[in-house]
Write a structure and sequence with these properties.
Blueprint: H1 2-11, H2 15-38, H3 48-59, H4 64-77, H5 82-105, H6 115-128, H7 131-142, H8 149-175, H9 183-205, E1 210-211, E2 214-215, H10 216-219, H11 221-254, H12 260-344, H13 349-379, E3 388-391, H14 392-402, H15 404-409, E4 413-417, E5 424-427, H16 429-445, E6 452-460, E7 463-470, H17 477-481, H18 503-513, E8 517-521, E9 529-536
Parallel strand pairs: 4-6
Antiparallel strand pairs: 1-2, 3-5, 6-7, 7-9, 8-9
């Protein structure tokens, strides 16, 4: 044996492949010789065909010479002529190569973890089963031997049965020979196979047809369903092989020669149906199990990611809150000092203007810090509002007063429409003012000097519609998608660098807290923008 392995390794194969080839040759030849010795020729049964196809798929198509030589030796052992033996060897080898090639071409997983693997295997076996019967039919026709279509059909069914009973078994058990089972699972496996064997024995060997008036044939489905739904593809292939062995052995032992072809045909048809049904069932169950495990794995990954993001978000919010508080503390005396200097007054015009600029800029810094704190509170769900009946007209006027210095600084004008109406909402006056002041500031910021900003107040089907429109730089379609995202700014200009990009995010959050909606519209860059806020009106408005 060692000499043979070394010889093959030197000229054709690696040591591993040589061992696989020799093992395939010995197994295949032993089964083929046994089939020729004990199975009648009229049965058209050649179980070694499944070993050949499965072996070439698992170990590689290049091992085909082992199949050819094994078939040739088995045929010569059966006293067939050299020409006939060679022809059968060529047919069986080509059939195994074709089947293995198709399975590899379809990337079949021999573990049958997806239903496509099972369907692909069944389809392949159904196709290659045409090869041997058709070739033998051609052989008989060329040699003047009369043969009927029924005989070809029996040959096809017999070969398909053999391949379905043996090939999946070879593929599944050779692809992953080792397997683990807990004690309970092992007991379950042994018990269900014991039941299957007992039913097979009484059904096929013992001749028992019914139990309590129920056909015994129906009982065979119980262990099959149990194996398919509980024990996975490996043991379904074993169950099919065991049942096939009992059924064929019973048919060969207890059927008269004159009836054997027809009874074998019916038995093989039944076994083909059983094998296909439960191969499909177990593959669907395996696919479901695999998808469930994948979903659980992805869910665990998602939960971990959410937990990590939540932790990081909390750390960020804590940092923002601490930063804002720490920065506000030194701002208080600075603001107080500026206010005192303004109260004392100064005769110098430049000093007075400088104090105004300082007061304005410090107010901007304080507003930004307040916005940062609000973002932190909103992220943690700590924002609260004190709802009361609020006049929208008064709120808009206070927002315009709060932003008046921005408008004057840029020599812009506010155009008001619909302010003669008395519209009321239930909300927090401070937060509502913050919504509108942020929108007005935003419109002013992105408009040119001297531009007009239009503020419109309308009543529309139980809601108040407030529109703030400018003729500024506009917003691109891509920008509109993220316009309300925190820390997102439009473009990369000097105007965008004067803020943190959180004003519109706060506007959206405060609007939603008031059960309202906000949307941004723009026809494109350079065509201005329009922000529309809709709030539910208070009763009796």
């Amino acid at each position: 044996m060692r000499f043979l392995v070394n010889h093959l390794s030197t000229y054709l194969y690696t040591p591993r492949t040589s061992i696989q080839g020799i093992f395939l040759f010995l197994t295949y030849t032993a089964v083929a010789v046994t089939a020729f010795a004990f199975l009648p020729a009229s049965a058209f049964l050649f179980p070694a065909a499944g070993i050949a196809l499965g072996g070439l798929f698992i170990s590689g198509i290049r091992l085909w010479p082992f199949i050819f030589i094994g078939t040739l030796l088995a045929c010569l052992y059966a006293d067939l002529s050299l020409l006939m033996a060679t022809s059968i060897a060529v047919i069986q080898t080509f059939q195994a190569i074709a089947g293995a090639f198709l399975l590899r071409k379809m990337h079949i997983d021999p573990l049958f973890r997806r239903y496509r693997d099972t369907f692909g295997t069944i389809t392949t076996l159904a196709l290659v089963s045409f090869i041997a019967p058709t070739a033998l039919l051609a052989w008989y026709v060329l040699n003047g031997v009369p043969v009927s279509a029924a005989e070809w059909g029996r040959g096809y069914v017999a070969l398909l049965f053999v391949l379905l009973a043996t090939t999946p078994f070879v593929l599944r058990w050779c692809a992953k020979p080792a397997f683990g089972r807990h004690l309970i699972e092992l007991i379950e496996t042994l018990a269900v196979f014991a039941i299957l064997i007992v039913i097979n024995y009484f059904l096929f060997i013992g001749g028992t047809e019914t139990i309590l008036g129920i056909p015994l044939l129906y009982f065979i489905f119980i262990p099959f369903f149990w194996i398919a739904l509980r024990l996975r593809p490996r043991f379904v292939t074993l169950a099919v092989l065991i049942t096939s062995a009992f059924a064929i052995l019973s048919t060969l032992l207890y059927t008269a020669d004159t009836e054997l072809p027809q009874v074998l045909f019916e038995t093989e048809t039944f076994l083909i149906t059983i094998s296909i049904i439960f191969y499909v069932i177990v593959s669907l169950e395996e696919d479901r199990r695999l998808n469930t495990n994948l979903m659980r794995s992805q869910l665990a990954t998602l939960e971990n990611a959410i937990a990590r993001i939540s932790t990081e978000s909390k750390a960020k919010n804590d940092f923002i809150a601490i930063l804002a508080h720490e920065l506000r503390n030194p701002l208080a005396p600075i603001m107080s000092g500026i206010d005192l200097l303004k109260l004392k007054g100064t005769a110098d015009k430049e000093d007075e203007e400088l104090l105004e600029v300082m007061h304005s800029r410090m107010g901007t810094v304080r507003r930004l810090l307040d916005d940062l704190l609000d973002v932190s509170r909103i992220s943690e769900g700590k924002i609260s509002i004190a709802k009361e009946r609020v006049s929208l007209t008064d709120t808009l006027k206070r927002a315009m007063e709060a932003t008046d210095h921005y408008i004057k600084e840029r020599h812009q004008t506010l155009v008001l429409k619909g302010f003669s109406q008395s519209l009321f909402v239930n909300g927090d006056a401070v937060r509502l003012e913050q919504i509108f002041s942020n929108l007005i500031t935003n419109a002013s910021k992105y408009s040119d000097s001297g531009d007009a900003i239009t503020i419109t107040l309308l009543k529309k089907k139980g809601t108040a519609r407030i529109t703030i429109k400018d003729n500024g730089i506009g917003i691109s379609p891509e920008g509109l998608e993220n316009i309300f995202t925190p820390f997102h700014q439009i473009g990369d200009t000097e105007r965008t660098k004067k803020g943190l990009g959180i004003g519109l995010a706060l506007v959206k959050s405060f609007t939603e807290v008031h059960e309202g909606t906000i949307q941004a519209e723009s026809k494109g860059l350079g065509k201005g923008s329009e922000f529309i806020v809709e709030l539910p009106l208070a009763e009796n408005t």
